[in-house]
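Practice problem: predict the structure.
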Amino acid sequence: MNATAYSDLTGLDAYLNGKSSYLENLTPAAAICLPVATTLAVLKQKLGADLFEKVINPVYTQPSPIEHLNDGNWLRTANMVGINVRTIGNFWNLVNYLFTVPACQQAVHLLPIWEPGVVASLYGMASWHINREFFSQELADALPELDSVEKQLKVTVNLLHALGRVVGMDVIPHTDRYSEIVLANPAFFEWMQRKGAKINDHSAQLYKRVEEYIYQCLQELGPAHSGAILPANAQAFFKLPEATRCLLLFGDQNNDFARNERRSVFIQYLHKQGLEPVPATMGPPYRGLEVDIDEASAKTIADDAWLDYRIINPGPMSRVFGPLTQYKLYENKNDNRDWEFDFERPQIEVWEYVCNQYAAVQRIYHFDFMRGDMSHVQMRPEGVPEVADEYYDIHRAVLRKVREEKPWFAYFAETFLAPPGTMAYGSEEDHLDLSEADATLGDLQSMVLGEPDFLQNFRFYLDLLHTRGFAPCFTLMTGDKDDPRFDKFYQAGNEARFFMGLFLTDMPSYMALGFECRDPHPEPAPNEHYTKLYVFRMEDGPKRTQGPYVFGNNLTLFQRLNRIRNEAERLLPSLSSSLSWLTPPDATAARQVIAWTHQDQGAYVFVVNSNLQQAAQRVKIPCSTAPGAKFRVIFSALENERNYLTKLIFQDGLLQIEQLAAGEALILQIEDN
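Answer:
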């Protein structure tokens, strides 16, 4: 390949010779536009011809860089990057985007990768097929053997492993309400029947009526597989292997249009009978639904109308997700007359189905960890039990299943560490321990840096870190918090957030794609500038997007974060994962400066002013270093090193900084006399 192909890749030599683990001047927007030929040439030089030829073969499985580990404890200190593949177009662009991300952010979490259903929500999976919109035709043209989205995903994970990354998938306890999974397995879900504006049947055995109607519709429609003969009745049909049922119901998995057309026919057929899967819910009391409509309108509702639902006696965090339905993991009490589950009677066949499906996905693509979507769900009204049997939590069950073969496989839980009884019955911390999570998301991303709720929760997370079996995450931004409602969290302080995410080495961090160059948005930007609005695909309404995701153009932030990354690349190998707090977060929020070091008293001190409005004056930090030691500022996240050229005062065990700018983050080196 000629040299002009690399003309935009400044820093390539440093990347290829190992002096840098990423292309620090390459912006994400530029990276995902790299031609396939350029990317392949860079990878071949980086990996060497022999390894390169192996990993681009979809039959080959590149070992994970953490396969030598015996548990998932590595996730407790991992720095994760979350990527909605829809924002970068295809799986291949994961490689291009990660050219812009250093090795110290080693863990890559992929938002759901399956074929989506209603409103194209990534979290409403319509089938177990990989999302075909993530296919790169340009890659297939360059490497004709990569002619399917499945092969391209496999090779992408191979490459990320070869480059030292670990890769995570989502584990979702629900599907699209009318997914192929639901229609092929009615017994695995709850059903209800509506007449007008009233739910008149939600009995436990209603799925049997659904099976009869699906079989009846199939008889009228004819099998999708040409020449196939249907079993004699619904009971025999639903005893066939799932793959056979799906072939008869929907047809060849590669014909998306035909499958979706047939699925639509089954949906309409059931809907005319008033039959619907029960929509998924969040937050206590979870159970007990009614039509979400006012009394006056209820009298005119047609039986075949599409309606929304609400919880009859909602709590503060109660939600009904109309496009989704949850797996029915337990039998009902009293034929579900009171919308109650019998947690002593798990539906073992459903548990085995979910666990086996996700284990198969892990086995094919060799994922290293899972993010448990809606891990905060704990539906037992009496709270978290003292002892849990093997059917306590579906995410734990999937984790254990995968770990039978892959002991290093780790579990990253989506919980927000809300107060007891808020988003789950009982304590989320107890639930996380019992469900064997290695790390959890937390909610620092929903708080303005330095404000009282941020400092209080940060201190709370540190307490949990040292007393619980899971590690709370220092989260910078998530893909589902990047929308106009949350602009205020990112107006300022992003450098300090990022600095803490990397240098708080005893806890994990999480950064969604786009944070590194996000524009401030003092006023809401067009929808195309927010990753949240690409979790689904809306063609009209206030959440409509037109065209691809638009990366921010905040080059000042991008360059500052890269300076932090470079300093992290230089220092992290010498730092212990164990922190010693010099000035811990103040839960009263009276003090907003925090400071820490490593290995009881390391060679460096890290200082952050979390106040984004005011500089801190005459900051005093206790340091138990040798008398007469000198402190020198070697790094400022705000590029203010020149302001700290004068000698810092260290007297009577206290280090004094005359002025610390708002949102500043410093690294000080300790020098003995």
